[in-house]
Design brief:
The protein is α/β, with parallel strands linked by helices. It folds into two domains: 4-159 and 189-222, NAD(P)-binding Rossmann-like Domain (Rossmann fold); 163-186 and 225-286 and 302-315, UDP-galactose 4-epimerase, domain 1 (Alpha-Beta Complex). Helix content is 41%, strand content 14%.
Amino acid sequence: MSRNVCITAVDGQTGFLIAELLLSEPFSSKVDSVVGLTLDPSAAKISELESLGAKIVEHKPGRARIMTKLLKDTKCDTICLIPPAHSEKMEISMELVNAAKKAGIPNVLLISSVGCDYASSRNQPRLREFIELESLTLAAKGDASTSTGHSPCVIRAGFYAENLLLYAPQAKSEGTLPLPIGKNHKFAPVALGDVAQVAAHVLSGKGPHGFDDKHRGQMMTVTGPILCSGEELATAASSALGTDLQFEDISSAEAKRVLRQQSDSDETEKEYILDYYSLVREGKTNYIATTAFHDVTGNHPTQLTDFFKMYNEEFRPKKKARRH
């Protein structure tokens, strides 16, 4: 049984890491080919994926017929749909879902977002968009005219712990983690690598109907293993770094300014992060979901202290010079 995988948005962190895993053991022996779609062929990560054996195809959105032909030309039987960091994220993603249907790709994995089911269109519009994408993707299950709904899977990825790296400058210079999440509620940041691990297992898993029957049709929610408030987050970081970091509860307006100054992400990605913080403040993220990770990988997700240890240099505050 062949497995030819097409991954969208491979120039982004999520797509790159999933593709990198599939091109490495133990996954590479289960996958025949990996095609990466990119909106930016000149991105730094692209040449690295090519050197690992991926075929890179430029993704030019806007024409549904051309998009369908492009997917057919990849000869993929499996697609990993990752909404791109782009001002027209929804339009591009919906076009990809529809093109996948017309191309008749039987195995479809959508990377969605934790919290989209609790988000409101008024308060967290960027989060709520993922519900529309999930609905559109899963609607193919009842469409007899296409084989695309035959083997679907959705991973609702938690808030990436890597987003906390945006506040590394404050951690280093001030010894603070400034987040607009309030003081009363909690969330469970997940390491990006953990989400990529689950995706790689799903994309390489095989069963009589496409994806492995353990994964096929699943709605997988993947968060980190620790539920923490802002103060508990700072405590975990302090423990891992062997230093003292303090949590600072900042306003949404200040958070927006910090993101504007310190993040080179697309505007829609910044809006998504702010929407998630808003969801935390509303008390709608007070849960963990690690069962899917454990069942799929057989391992335990990355502990928050281990995450901070991995990024020790980025977060560790600079020692102040002693006055003699």
